[in-house]
Design goal:
204 residues, alpha+beta, Multidrug-efflux Transporter 1 Regulator Bmrr, Chain A, 2 domains, nine-stranded antiparallel beta sheet, 9 strands, 13% helix, 28% strand, globular
Amino acid sequence: MGMVFGKICVETPKCQVLHSCANYEIRHYAPSVVAEVAYTPSQFKGDRDGGFTVLANYIGAFGNPQNAKPEKIAMTTPVITKSEKIAMTTPVITQGPPRGRREGSGEEAVTMRFVLPAKYGRAEEVPRPLDERVVVREEEGRKYGVVRFSGVATEGVATEKAERLREWLERDGHKVAGEFVLARYNPPWTLPPFRTNEVMIPIE
């Protein structure tokens, strides 16, 4: 019942809060090892969260883990997603999430990421994925501006929150160093008012 009401019962990434104000926080996240999958929603019948099953199967969340050991890997939270737009005139993925869909601007690409448990200090310590779509890599420590919100984190809501956060950060003299990612902390069965979501923008 706890997860229905938003209780977070699994490991979360280590971070230090450097600054907190009424609108947002500045956090520094420790280096981590992540497993991620990149895809277009059309590969999963239009489901923007289709990569979740791929990653969950890799760690063994739904049964036997699909990795070379095989070893069950504990689930952590949040699940992190980043959206980008694929230009129709080139196979190169353009930087940054869409600011709203435009007719003829190409298909959206999504990268979904699980931060693996802190016991894995390096990528080579992590069981090798059997699904070649899953990439395991090390991520350097990084500083983010973060805004937290509840409810259903639709693409439109996340983009609106990110635009407001960017305005606050730039107003307060922080230099934005990339596009936003969306972090969702709860499973789909958590009641929307009790969900924890965050929009995170990297800063220098």
